[in-house]
Amino acid sequence: MTRLLLGVTLERICKAVLLLCLLHFVIIMILYFDVYAQHLDFFSRFNTRNASRVHPVSNSSRPNGTVPSYGPAGAEAPSPSTKPSANQTATEKPLQPCQEMPPGLVGRLLIEFSSPMSMERVQRENPDVRQGGKYTPPDCLPRQKVAILIPFRHREHHLKYWLHYLHPILRRQKVAYGIYIINQFGEDTFNRAKLLNVGFLEALKDDEEYDCFIFSDVDLIPMDDRNLYRCYEQPRHFAVGMDKFGFRLPYAGYFGGVSGLSKSQFLKINGFPNEYWGWGGEDDDIFNRISLNGMKVSRPDIRIGRYRMIKHERDKHNEPNPQRFTKIQNTKMTMKRDGISSLQYRLVEVSRQPMYTNITVEIGRPPPRLARG
Questions:
Q1: Are 327 and 276 in contact (CB under 8 A)?
Q2: Burial level of 164, CB count in 10 A (0-12/13-18/19+)?
Q3: pLDDT digits (tens, 9 = 90+) for 297-333
C-alpha cells in the first residue's frame, strides 16, 4: 500500500515538473519571437532610412559628401549638362523640428580624467563647432536656443575636459547652443552668482534669440547624455546625483552644480543674488526665489542625472561665506532689490575662441564687514 502511494506521488511530481518545463518553454518562445520581431522592425526601418538616402546621381565634389535635392520622389533628375536659369533657385526640403528624444543618444557614458587633454584635441574632435563655441544642428530645427554659462577663474585644466565631453554630448542632443566662459577679473573674492547674472546679459547682447540658459560649474561632467540640456516648464536642476555625494541628492532643496532656467523664469525671480561673496549659499537663495515666485524645481531621474566632479583643492579667494546662512533666511526681503535689476559690472574683454566665448569682467569686491563689539 505504501509503495502504491509512493508511486502515485512520484507520478504526480513528474507530471508537475513536465508541466512546468512546458510552460517555461512556451514563455521562452514568446519572448524569443517578441525580440526577433523587434529586431526585424529595427532593421526594416534602418534599411528604409538608408534607402531613402540613396540617389541615382552622386557628386563627390560637394562638401561632406552631400548630394543635391531634385524635388519630389519620382521627379526626373536634370542631366549634367542642364544649367539652372539665372532666376531659378534650388528647392530644398524644409527641415523638420528636432525630436524630443534625439535618436543618436548613447545613454550612460564613461567619464575619466586621467588621459591628457589639450585644446587642440578638443578642436580636432569638434570640427562642426563654430568660432565662439557655437553650434546649430544641420539636419533639424532645434526647439530652443541655449546659452551655457560657466563662472570661471583659473580653471583652464578643468575647462579642457569640460569642453572635451560636453561638445559631443550637446551635438548628439541636437541643441543649438553657445558656450560662454564668464571670467572674473582680478584676485578679489569670487562671486559665482553675480558672474552668472553678467553671463545672462552678455549672452543676450551676443544673440538676443537665446531663450534658455544653462548655468554650469566647470568641474561637473554629466555621465548620461539623456540628461537633456534644455529648459522645461519649471526651472531645472540637472546635477541630481554627484559622485562626491554618493550619487544622491544631499538635501531636498539643493539647486547647485548645474541648473537651467528659461529667459522668462530667470527674469521672474530677478535673476540671481549679487551679494554672495565666497563659497556657498547662492544656490539655496536661488531655490528660495523659485519657490517664493510660485514655481517648482524639476529634475531628471536619479539614474540619468549623475555627474562626475573633477577633484581639486578649494580655490584661493573662494573661502566659505560666513554670512550665507543669514542671507538665505532673508531671501524674501532681498530678492526684489538684489538681482539682475541691480547688477553692476565693468566689461574688460570679449574674446571668441574656437571652442567657447570668453567674457572677462570686473565685478567689484565684497563690502567691508562691520567690526564686532
A1: yes
A2: buried
A3: 999 999 999 999 998 666 666 666 767 767 888 899 9
Nearest to 282 by CA among 323, 313, 310, 252: 323
190-206 in b/e form (b: 16+ CB < 10 A) is bbbbbbbbbbbebbeeb
Q: Which amino acid is at 71?
A: G
Q: Which residues are catalytic?
A: 217, 219, 279, 282-283, 309, 312, 314
How many CB atoms are located within 10 Å of the residue 154 CB?
A: 14
DSSP 40: H
If phi > 0 it is left, if psi is from -120 to 50 it is alpha, else beta; for residue 109 that is: beta
Give the three-class secondary structure for 352.
Answer: strand
CA dihedral 252, 253, 256, 257 (to 10 degrees): 30
- Do residues 217 and 152 lie in contact, with contact meaning Cβ atoms separated by under 8 Å? no
The pLDDT tens digits of the residues spanning 3-39 come to 666 667 777 787 877 777 777 676 666 544 443 444 3
Length of the chain: 373
109-113 contacts, C-beta under 8 A, 24 or more apart: 109/165, 109/169, 109/222, 109/223, 109/224, 109/225, 111/165, 111/221, 111/223, 111/308, 113/161, 113/308, 113/310
Closest CA to 282 of 168, 192, 198: 192
Distances in whole angstroms, Cα of residue 356 to Cα of each of 61, 120, 182, 239, 348: 31, 13, 11, 22, 17
CB-based contact 287:253 (threshold 8 Å): yes
